[in-house]
Design a protein that fits this description.
Blueprint lengths: L1 E2 L10 E6 L2 E6 L11 H16 L13
Antiparallel strand pairs: 1-2, 2-3
Length: 67
């Protein structure tokens, strides 16, 4: 199993889990990726999820239209 390293309180963590000849990326938030035969692709799925879903947004709230 591969994990995303040290995390602080309240942060999500991704791992890869192997079952037979397949690897699946999983996250502590409940997300899981598709079963993959290549471990590297499962790790890429985990990295993409962590980047897309758990990165802090560096833009202000775009729904605020009262300028």
């Amino acid at each position: 199993m591969l994990d995303s390293g040290d995390i602080g309180p309240g942060q999500d963590r991704t791992t890869t889990v192997e079952k037979g000849s397949f690897s699946t990326a999983r996250c502590t938030c409940g997300w899981y990726g598709p079963a993959r035969r290549a471990r590297g692709i499962a790790r890429d799925d985990a990295a993409a999820h962590a980047t897309a879903r758990h990165s802090p947004s560096d833009t202000s709230d775009s729904s605020d239209s009262s300028h």
